[in-house]
């Protein structure tokens, strides 16, 4: 078993892994490139498969203080505004052992950071960029904070543009030709037609908008996914609202008013990392977006990062496995799941973004199936539990 572990990246993946590894008895150092844990990102849906792991860390009450539990995921027509189908979520906790929660990413990150700071086995070094240098019999060598350091194991939780992935031979993230436009607005400024108790997905012509409450219902998170060739980097590129309004001309009143909302939209180029690429080399392994950044159409990127952290910890805890073998077993177990979820997210994208000609057939099929049966199709996803 490793005597110490370095984690590059203090996002959802790195922080969750640090907490799980520290509770399992490993000394952990998180290196985060940014100077602090700022309020980047917007809403996150945390489904029961990941929520169970956070609950087991004892974070349930803190999460519930800032989360909303949606009654349903409701599909509506972006132009008609009419409901196509609603997948009921109120019974998620009974069905899958943890609630379906809606959170602001900054709230989840703050809860994880507070828990990590309270754990004496975790050291956090911010404003510290990690560069992997190599591996020898004594461990993994990295450059961090202007000097060379050595750890038994290095975990790359450094996101979609991962330097650790490049070090172990992985390719760059591939832009998908789609962008996510995001804004968070005070709930009392959102149009009355926008539901506050559920996730609403407005399906348009080759584009869609997802709306749900965050911050215990005080704010509304809006994400519009459109197809455009823009390829900027970073979470916080400002987006001109007129471009977005042009895409949603003719939208139903409530949605049109929401899109016209004054305020600063941010634009994020959606890029993917093929889950079938390299995840591990010796005592270096990847988790989260670094290993398998996926389209957000199933709202599972952070959830997969949390699942990765749980499996990684279980493998490193096995006394019969040298660290590099434990990491290889982690990859063996996680890769098929991450690839399946990424494929399912891609399929959801194709369904959400159907052409106006095909959309009526999609809507009729969804209606005929009904919300309960559509939801049951995701039991494999939300009902996931670790092997072993
Ligand atoms: C529009 C949109 C909506 C989404 N909605 C959902 C959702 O509802 N539910 C869900 O589960 N997922 C969702 N996701 C996906 C989710 O946001 C990501 O999968 C998740 O945040 C990835 O976490 P991470 O820790 O792997 O990476 P990141 O959050 O990118 O964290 C990586 C960290 O590493 C740091 N770093 C980078 N390089 C270095 C280095 N060399 N040294 C040190 N530090 C470094 C970065 O500063 C950063 O803090 C969504 C994504 C998008 C784009």
Automatic annotation (TrEMBL):
Keywords: FAD, Flavoprotein, Monooxygenase, Oxidoreductase. Its EC number is 1.14.13.1. It comes from the Bacteria. One of its GO terms (molecular function) is salicylate 1-monooxygenase activity. It is an enzyme of class 1 (oxidoreductase). InterPro entries: FAD-bd, FAD-dep_Monooxygenase_BioMet, FAD/NAD-bd_sf. Residues 4-344 form the FAD-binding domain. SUPFAM superfamilies: FAD-linked reductases, C-terminal domain, FAD/NAD(P)-binding domain. The keyword Nucleus does not apply. Its cofactor is FAD. The keyword Membrane does not apply. PANTHER family: GERANYLGERANYL DIPHOSPHATE REDUCTASE, MONOOXYGENASE. This is Salicylate hydroxylase. It comes from Kaistia geumhonensis.
């Amino acid at each position: 078993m490793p005597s110490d572990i370095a984690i590059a990246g203090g996002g959802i993946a790195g922080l969750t892994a640090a907490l799980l590894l520290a509770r399992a008895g490993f000394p952990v150092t998180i290196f985060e490139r940014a100077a602090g844990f700022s309020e980047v990102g917007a809403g996150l849906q945390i489904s029961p498969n990941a929520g169970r792991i956070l609950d087991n860390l004892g974070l349930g009450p803190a999460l519930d203080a800032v989360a909303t539990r949606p009654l349903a995921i409701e599909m509506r027509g972006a132009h008609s505004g009419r409901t196509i189908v609603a997948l009921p979520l109120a019974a998620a906790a009974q069905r899958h052992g943890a609630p379906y929660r809606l959170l602001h990413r900054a709230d989840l990150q703050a809860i994880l950071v507070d828990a990590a700071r309270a754990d004496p086995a975790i050291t956090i070094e911010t404003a510290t960029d990690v560069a992997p240098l190599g591996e020898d019999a004594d461990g993994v060598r990295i450059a961090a904070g202007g000097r060379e350091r050595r750890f038994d194991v290095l975990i790359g939780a450094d996101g979609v543009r991962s330097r650790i992935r490049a070090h172990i031979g992985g390719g760059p993230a591939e832009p998908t030709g789609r962008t996510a436009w995001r804004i968070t607005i005070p709930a009392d400024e959102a149009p009355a037609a926008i539901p506050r108790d559920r996730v609403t997905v407005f399906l348009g012509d080759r584009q869609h908008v997802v709306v749900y409450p965050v911050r215990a219902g005080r704010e509304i998170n809006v994400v519009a996914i459109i197809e455009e060739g823009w390829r900027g980097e970073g979470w916080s590129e400002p987006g001109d609202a007129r471009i977005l309004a042009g895409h949603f001309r003719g939208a139903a009143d409530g949605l049109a008013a929401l899109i016209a909302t004054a305020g600063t939209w941010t634009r994020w180029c959606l890029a993917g990392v093929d889950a079938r690429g390299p995840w591990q080399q010796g005592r270096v392994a990847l988790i989260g977006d670094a290993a398998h950044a996926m389209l957000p159409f199933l709202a599972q990127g952070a959830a997969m990062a949390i699942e990765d952290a749980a499996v990684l910890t279980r493998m490193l805890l096995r006394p019969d496995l040298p660290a590099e073998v434990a990491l290889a077993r982690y990859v063996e177990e996680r890769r098929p799941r991450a690839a399946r979820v990424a494929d399912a997210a891609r399929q959801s994208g194709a369904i959400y973004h159907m052409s106006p000609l095909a959309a009526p057939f999609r809507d009729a099929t969804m209606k005929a199936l009904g919300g309960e049966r559509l939801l049951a199709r995701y039991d494999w996803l939300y009902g996931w539990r670790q092997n072993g």
